[in-house]
Hints:
The complex is a heterodimer. By secondary structure, chain A is mainly α. Chain A is built from six helices and no strands. The longest helix of chain A is centred in the N-terminal third of the chain and has 26 residues, at 22-47. Chain B is an alpha+beta fold. The model of chain B has no long low-confidence stretch (mean pLDDT 86).
Amino acid sequence: MSEGRPADFDPRVLRELFPTAPERVSIVLESFRTVLPDRYRAIVAAWEVGGDRLAAEAHGLKGTCLSVGALRLGLAAKDLEDAARAREPLEPARIAFEAAYRDLLAMFGGDRTDSA
Amino acid sequence: MKILVVDDDLPAIQILGFALRDLGYEVTTAFNGVQALERMREHDFRIVIADWVMPEMDGIELCRTIRSRSEPGYVFFILLTARTDKTDRLIALQAGADDFLTKPYDRSELSARLGTAIRILEAEEKLHEATLRLEQAREQERAIGAEIQRALLTPRAPAGLSRLEVGTVSIPSQQIDGDFYDFIVHGRNHLDVIVGDAMGKGIPAALVGAGTKSAILHTVNALYAEQEGRLAPPETVLQRATLSLTPEFIALESFVTMVYARFDLTEMEVELVACGHPPVLRFRAETGEVEVIDPAFAPIGFLPNEAYASQTRSFQPDDVFVIVSDGVTEAGLESGEMFGIERAAEVLAEVAELPADAIVQSFVERIAAFSGGLTGRDDLTLVAIKILRDARPTAPEEATFESQLAQLAAIRDFVSRAVFLAGTPRRQHDELLLAVNEAVTNVMRHAHFGMTSARLNIRVVPGDGEVRVELLYEGEPFAPEEVMPDLENPSGGGLGLYIIRQSVDEVRYEGLAEGANRVSLLKRFGDR
């Protein structure tokens, strides 16, 4: 992890929510790993449309990521949402978002929906 | 407590669901607004937590839909959002959201916000229960009020009048009637008819109406006493009553419309005044035409010095007068067309040949057909007075009492009413009642002395210009010739007999078969 950069994944977020039920952490993470590629593809699909639709997709992923502890991707999604909403150039935010997604996915063992 | 969680994001639903279950709530989930509404049709949820952005139906639309439902019980709606923009929050509040939750969730904040939700729901539940109890109490009060009005304040159409027949109907819009009517019978040949409408509806209007009736009756009596037994004309009665009523009505911010009509069967004419009330209808049998009489003055309660003036109409047998409240003329107003006085006049022309009761019933049927029912916005009252061709036969009134002094008051009440209805003027009524009182006392003290189960049968027989009271009893015959009046020594006996002879025109004591006796007291008064 680079200095000053948010963690790709912070396990404390879910553990603090369910301190006495580690099995719940596993259930939520499993769900997250399952839905993440679809949410990513929805953002890619909205990329050409841009504007409010892209902002809405990025907003949804941001909430999910921050809730489970995927902080870097969550913040990258927030930057993407802000840029799309403000109709600003998207490229810097997109590069950061793509990188965050790639790294998180690698940490989770790749896109399992792809292999399926 | 059951909570419905609505979010299209599975991890988000799981996180929130687990957290809520840990806090002791029962959780049901839905993935969008449409699904949430289906769940709400199946179960009763008082707390809904929904994400803002969802496919098919988002959180804002779901909230609006829930708020627009008519189902009882408040639903506390919490919107999940990361949006902190003031405009977004305003949109959510306008849609009916009660609170917001931001992802990621903080466990203690979630618990605190739900605690607030439950306090509000409990307060709402208490308010709802209190409102229900209040409504039940009001309904009970209305029912009692309606029963009191029916039993105590609704007069029966007067009987025993010569050549007059009266039909009445009064249908309240709210159980209790702001309309009122009353009759004051002055002997057999004079009848005052009062039909009024107190502003508003329900109990306040009924109380104003009852108060007005009371004031009118009090005024009639006071004027009668002041004018030594002469009846004051309707305009004078209203003038006097208005002086005392108007300041009260102004203070109460109320008023009363009224028709006061006096039917004089000696002169065959009616005097009437209308104070802000719909016109009076008069059917003339001779021509078959209906006259709309509108002697319009200000309602009672507007002007303390209104100069009322009666209008007089002569009448003939088979003429009919109909006095209505505005519930009749304004029936059907909701549908854009009123029944109106002209239509009422047409109805009267068609049904005037019927008896008075059937006339008012015909009006009710026509009004119901015109306005699609009788649950109108206003009370509806009709009084029909029909002039009869021939004097009606008046049957005797009869009652039996235990022959005990404790029954004297009940006997006096019975005789007073029957003698009064027989058309006896007040002075002759009072004198006859005095004679009856003495005669009954004599029977109880002498003929029934020492007897515990003796009974006394009393008949009041109306006649033409006279009335006879008969006391029928078994026991020792009362022999008046053996009792000499001694005015120098009243306690020596005979005074009662003297009073009886002075008070009536004829007194007879008869021994009938099998130990039965009859005392007849005849009082003549002629036509007034």
